[in-house]
Amino acid sequence: MDDKGFLYQQLADELGDKIRSGDLGVGEKLPSLRGLHRKLGVSIGTVYQAYTELESKGLVEARPKSGYYVKSAKVLSLPVPGYVKRSSNPSRVHISAILSDVVNASLNPNLVPLGASTLSLDLFPYKHLKRILGGISPMRMKRLIQYPPAEGDPELRRRIAMRLLGIAPHVRPDDVVITNGCMEALSLSMLALTSPGDVVAVESPAFFGALQLFRELGLKAMEVPTNPRYGVDVEALEAVLDRHPVKACLFTPNYHNPLGALMPDDRKQDLVELLNRRGIPLVEDDIYAELHFTPQRPSLLKTYDQKDLVITCSSVSKVLAPGFRVGWLVVGERFRERLSRLKSGFNMATSSIEQYVCSQFLGDGAFDRFLRSLRRTVEKQVHETAVAIQQYFPKGCKLAPPQGGNVLWVELPPKVDGYRLYNSAMENGISIVPGGAFSTTRRYDHYVRISSTAPFDDRIRDGIKILGDLAEREMGAEENKAA
Amino acid sequence: MDDKGFLYQQLADELGDKIRSGDLGVGEKLPSLRGLHRKLGVSIGTVYQAYTELESKGLVEARPKSGYYVKSAKVLSLPVPGYVKRSSNPSRVHISAILSDVVNASLNPNLVPLGASTLSLDLFPYKHLKRILGGISPMRMKRLIQYPPAEGDPELRRRIAMRLLGIAPHVRPDDVVITNGCMEALSLSMLALTSPGDVVAVESPAFFGALQLFRELGLKAMEVPTNPRYGVDVEALEAVLDRHPVKACLFTPNYHNPLGALMPDDRKQDLVELLNRRGIPLVEDDIYAELHFTPQRPSLLKTYDQKDLVITCSSVSKVLAPGFRVGWLVVGERFRERLSRLKSGFNMATSSIEQYVCSQFLGDGAFDRFLRSLRRTVEKQVHETAVAIQQYFPKGCKLAPPQGGNVLWVELPPKVDGYRLYNSAMENGISIVPGGAFSTTRRYDHYVRISSTAPFDDRIRDGIKILGDLAEREMGAEENKAA
Predict the structure, then answer these.
(1) Which of A238, A261, B232, B336 has a C-alpha 20 to 30 A away from that of A470?
(2) Which residues pair with B220 in a beta bridge?
(3) ipTM
(4) pTM of the predicted model, to two decimals?
């Protein structure tokens, strides 16, 4: 990647941060193109591109014959949700019976789509993928009906390893094992590292799919206090490790679901050093990393791994085609043989056609072009969704500005119950996910996860407005009850 | 299916049995077309079709202006391998390190293909499948990139249930759960029914994939004596159940791999009644059932299940496209919820495109037409392979005439070691599977599995001749050693 090509992006990011933090106030005029060109020594074109970028995000507006101004309505100023630094105890996972309803609702196209963690199908390059399918020759097809290698299509493995160049430079194609989606990568890792009854540390809150998996495998979840902006609290984790026999960890350092948190590099390093020191295996879920709003994709926990104890799991589900079920493990020598054997023993291999289509799409440059445009779209719609929440939700709500991915973790006033809000949202044709789904505790009962799955439009604005009204009503109902 | 359409087939089968059993001797003349037409009251066309069928299998030959005669070289007269009726003890599974070499060799196209349990790719309708792929519309593609339902594509589930009409009449589409191949169906069933350390009863010998799975899940294999023609010995199983805490059973009643055994209906019924009485869950692997040499597909163990304790597992891997990884579970209410949850928890769903292609191919009648022709091809090549083994292998070899499927279980003279034969076969560019791969015991060290993967030709004949020579040499070497 050419760093110079991103100069405008860096400038846009810096200005964006200043606007979001309030350093550049609402209505304030930005420096003129020529002024900034002189001051920073960058070309006028670069400044212009940065301003256009900020405009496309709705942060600034161009006023004819005057210049660029900070727009009022788009500034996020909600407080960030707090977090409890006290750990609970390891706990068997019991999952609410409504979870499968929640998941089904999140995929129901008739509801206002604020529940799914995957993007609207319209944002994916399905026509391009169809063309690749259509171009399969009879001889290729004959090869595709044969069992693929258990570890996956060699070309796809090579291309996935190549994408990690500069991020985890030691990763070779042999380190990549293709799985049936990221979920299977997590499942095989847990099967490889744990036995029923073992304790596994996760963030609090945690991705409900991980909790569901723990239940199926009879594992105990140890929820570790997690900062809604910076990810898992390394000190709190250390205290947990002192008290509980943690067999493995499962963390999502990049754009955590549901928090949206991104661990800064120094925290990632601290985390991995701690676990390396104690010899504890660490599984990282990297599924959202490609949806970064910064110019570069974030580092991995594996980047800092000195002891070959980190297994990285990801897939194309969030950025290409959820239904393809193409994911992967990145795994070093320590666990590779065991994981290959588990993959082959469990279901022999991952479906061949989707592997081929992904390998083609990843190979021809189309993926990177597509991702660049997708990221801009997602950042814009996520920001607009967050601003609408700020505008329409009752006072006392909190929200961490998302740094990537497409989910928003909203803390409601303590009186508002997330499950009740979910139910009344469903009655109004809107899908969301109640916060309780993300924990074995009751800590997040007054939270909800709201996803930005599609470009912001009136339907979504109206959905959020209705949600806000419903939350307000819940508050009132509670106050009346108390009175 | 129209029963009348199979009259010729029934006649061909009856005559074929008489030839194989020796009732109709080599060189003997078959009744004339007109004679049999009068005697049986069937049309001359039906008799002609039956004779043509026998001719295509190489059992009879037409002599111009004379009639049809039993051909000499094609009669199978090898004794059936015996079996030990004494059970061993439940045993942790340790799998020979060479197993993955064996599996890789069986897929290596440069070797004479007597090792794979799947058919040659040339026998599969890949051009037709490619046409289905090519016909996917953009709107269809958009739907295909969405997460499929965890239980699978509703249309495919319906079509699979329909295929069991008349076999297991109570099976509804809701009872079918799509999995990533038959292997995943077995894996999820074992995860649902057992915990590490549990004892699972299997045939002796057993499919090595099942043994591999047991090892990965920490299960103990209880090998139950199994008749090479009629499948698992129900009395022996009863004795086993009295002595060991068997948690679940995994049997392959239809064309067992590696035995080729078909359980007769009354034995199936006895087996299921025994396990129903004791409340023990039974997983049946039905993957070879569509490769039947008789006119009708055989019944299921599920056919006789009164207590909803049988889970049936199968896939398209042996009859359509191994690389598609499309399989299924047929499961009643008792275990359905647990299995759906496991499927969704483990890898969310099976890849969408292969599900769609299978659903289309199963739906339009092409599948049945294709299967009818495939079965004839496979029966012919399997029979010719068996006859070649009889011709070229040393005296003392045994072989049960296969009744379906495409694998042949060959008992060598006790002095010949299957692993050594495998190694020398590999040196000569031929893949086979040593018998030891199918057991936790040493009982099958002088067996090999020889597959008929492709239409019989000179390459395969030469391969079998070389194998026979190698086996002969091994015998001599052993005798010299002993002397």
Answers:
(1) A261
(2) B92, B199
(3) 0.86
(4) 0.88
